[in-house]
Automatic annotation (TrEMBL), chains A, B:
Catalytic class of the enzyme: oxidoreductase
E.C. number(s) listed in UniProt: 1.1.1.8
PROSITE patterns recorded: NAD_G3PDH
InterPro entries: 6-PGluconate_DH-like_C_sf, 6PGD_dom2, G3P_DH_NAD-dep, G3P_DH_NAD-dep_C, G3P_DH_NAD-dep_N, NAD(P)-bd_dom_sf
Annotated positions binding substrate: 142, 338-339
Record bears the keyword Chloroplast: no
Any GO BP annotation: carbohydrate metabolic process
A Pfam family assignment: NAD_Gly3P_dh_C
Species name: Penicillium argentinense
Ranges of residues in domain Glycerol-3-phosphate dehydrogenase NAD-dependent N-terminal: 12-192
Protein name, entry field: Glycerol-3-phosphate dehydrogenase [NAD(+)]
Amino acid sequence: MGSLGPYQRKHKITVVGSGNWGCAIAKIVAENAASNSDIFEKKVEMWVFEETVEIPKDSPNYDPANPGPEKLTHVINRVHENVKYLPGIKLPANLHANPSLEDAVKDSTILVFNLPHQFIVKTCESIKGKILPYARGISCIKGVDVNEHGINLFSETIGKTLGIYCGALSGANIANEVAKEKWSETTVAYDPPHLDSKAPSLQPSPSGSQVDLVQFEHKDVSGNLSNVKLQALPSEYPPIDHNVLKQVFHRPYFHVRVVSDVAGVSISGALKNVVALAAGFVEGMGWGDNAKAAVMRVGLMEMVRFGDKFFGATIDQRTFTDESAGVADLITSSSGGRNFRCAKLSVERNQPIEQIEKDELNGQSLQGTLTAAEVNSFLKNQGQEEDFPLFTAVYRILQGTMQVAEIPSYIER
Amino acid sequence: MGSLGPYQRKHKITVVGSGNWGCAIAKIVAENAASNSDIFEKKVEMWVFEETVEIPKDSPNYDPANPGPEKLTHVINRVHENVKYLPGIKLPANLHANPSLEDAVKDSTILVFNLPHQFIVKTCESIKGKILPYARGISCIKGVDVNEHGINLFSETIGKTLGIYCGALSGANIANEVAKEKWSETTVAYDPPHLDSKAPSLQPSPSGSQVDLVQFEHKDVSGNLSNVKLQALPSEYPPIDHNVLKQVFHRPYFHVRVVSDVAGVSISGALKNVVALAAGFVEGMGWGDNAKAAVMRVGLMEMVRFGDKFFGATIDQRTFTDESAGVADLITSSSGGRNFRCAKLSVERNQPIEQIEKDELNGQSLQGTLTAAEVNSFLKNQGQEEDFPLFTAVYRILQGTMQVAEIPSYIER
C-alpha cells in the first residue's frame, strides 16, 4: 500500500465496457492504478457483458484439457486476456472482469464509459441511483449525437442520466495499436462546475456523512438550461482534477493532454469523419498531396467555424487546431481510416459508397456518411449550408447530386 | 483595355526568376493580369537568367528544321514554354521573358521574387535604385535564414536591400502540380506600414511628381530597430492591399488566402521540414498512423511555441494552425516530401541520412537537415533546447547521439 498523503481515501476506478477499445483503456487504467497506489485502489473493475466463449486453438491460452466453452469473465480473470475482443494482449492482473454492472460500479469514484453509443442510455439507467452520488465520469465514446434540432454530447447524456459530472476522452487512437503499446496521444476534456467556489448547502449524504450538495443552472451545448444537482467529492478523497485524470490515463506509450473543452473534443471526433470522406474523394481523383492537404485544412476550418457558430464561447478553437482529438485525429482519419478508404474507392471504382461499404467492411457501417447526413440536416435547419461548403459538398456527393470535381469551385471564396 | 475605374494607372507586374516554381507562379500572375485588365497591365515581365538551350526532340515544340541551340528567352517568347525548367506547360502569351533584369523590373509596381535564396542579395543589389521607389514586393522563396544569433526573413532581406516593402507567399504547393493546374491552396502574407495613417512629409519623387515619403522605425523579427524609408504609392494607382494581391495570385485551381503575418508564413515554411523529418523517422519505425499524427501535432505545437517565444506579438499562432503555409504544408511535407522520404529510408535501411541523400536525391540536398542544425544552434544559444524537445530530438538523431526509439520518452511531459 502506498502513502495516502493528506487524504484518507483512494479513488476506485471502474471501466464500463470491454470491447477492444474498452479493454485497451482498461489495461491503461489498471496499469496506472497499480503504479499510482497512493491515490488509486489497485483493483480496477471492468464491467463485461457476460457471454460464453471458446478460447481459439491457436491462442497460447488454449488448454486442450479444458477446451471450454467458458464464461468470458472467467477467462479474463483466469488468463488475463479478452480472447474474444482483444486477443493476444495481456491484461493487468489487477483488472477484474465483473459480469455484474451494479456490483462493478457501486463503490467507484471514477467511472470510465467505453461502450457502443447505442447502449449508453440503457446502461446508465440501469445503474441510476446505485453509484456513489459524488462519482465522476469520463466518456471514451467517440463522436456526438447530431439531429436536425441540435447536438447532444454522449458525456452529457451520461451525466444527466446519472446525475454526475462526466468529461470525455478522444484522440488519434486505434484500439489495437494502443493495446500493443504503440505510441500515440490522446485528449482528455474535463471541466466540472467549481463546487468549492459556490456556497454549498450541507445535506446528509446517502452514506450518512456530511457532503456538499450543489444545485446550479447548467446550460448544455444546445443552450438548454437545466437544473443539475452535483455532489461535491468528500474531502477524504484527493480532488479529481486535471492532474489526477492525467494519472488515470497517461502512460509512456499513451501521452495525455488534459483540457477543459468537452464539447470541442466530442465534436471533433464526429466532424473529422466528414472531412476524412472529402480527403478520400480527393485522393480517389488522384489530385495529389497538396489538394488532399487543402481539403483537410478547409475541413479543419469548417470544424472551427461549426464550434464557433453553434457553441460560441463554450468551445475553444484550439481544441480543433492544437489537440490530438482535433488536428491529429483528422490527420490519422484522412490517412488510412475507414471513411477515407471507402470514399477513395468509391471514386476509383465509380460506385456509390454504400456499395463499397457492403463490399469492404464485412457488415460494419461507416460513421462518416451518417454524420454527414445528420450534420447536413442540422445545417439546413439552421439555414447555414452555404457557410459550410465542404460539409455540404460531401453530403451532396454522397447523395449523388454533386460531383467530386466540383469541390474546388464550390468551396472557392 | 478594361476600365480604369477611379484610377489613372494600372499595376505592372514582374516576376524575378524563372525556374519551375518561378514559371508556375509567372503563369498564374500572367493569367490574372490578362483577366483583370482593369487594374493590371496585360503584359507581365519575367526575368530569365539567359542561357542557351536545345528543345528536346520529344517536345511538341521541337522543329527538325530549326534544331537550335537557341536562347532560352527566345524559346519562351516564341513557343511559350520553358523547355528547360518547366517542360510540357503552356505559358500565357502575355508573359514576356526578359533577359535584362534591369529592364524587366524598371516600370513595375509589383515585384514577385521567385529565385533560389542564395541569389537574393546579389540580384537585389544589382537593381537597387533602378526600380520604382514605391514598388511593393512578394517573396515566393520558401523558408528563412536562421543562424545562432537570430532569424532573417527573405522578404525582409529583399525589402531592406531595395528600400521597399516586401510580403511573402508560401503554401502546400509543388511547382509541377500547380503548373498542371491541380488544385491547391496557398497563403500570401502582406502587412506594410500604414503610410496613409502617418503624417507624411512631401518630398519630390525621383520622377519629379510629389509623393509621400514616410520614414518610420522598423523593428525586424529579431528585434533590431532600423530606419526604413518607404514611399507611398502614388494615388493614380489602385492601392496594393489584400484584395489586389488576391487578384494577382488567386486562380480557380490555386486558392489564395491573404493574411498579415509575414513572419509566421515564412517560419512555417522552414520549420515544417524539421517536423517532416520526425514524421519520416516515426514512419520508418512502423509505429503506425497514430504515432505519425502525434509527432506532427507535437511539431506543429513547437512551431507555435517558437513563433510565440521569439517573435511574440508580431506572429499569429493561427498562421501555423489554420493556414496553407502552416498546417497544410506540414501535412503535405510529412506525407511524401523529400525530407520525410529520406528520414524514413534512413531508419528502414539503418543508414545515416547523408547516405540516403546521396543515393536518392541526384545531387540535391535536404533542406530539413540544414534547418534542424541551424535551429538547434539558435536554440542552444538561447538556452532553449529543452523547451523544443522534438526539434532537439530530430537534431540529435541526425547527429547520431539519440535513437528514434527515444522520441516518445524525450518529448513526454
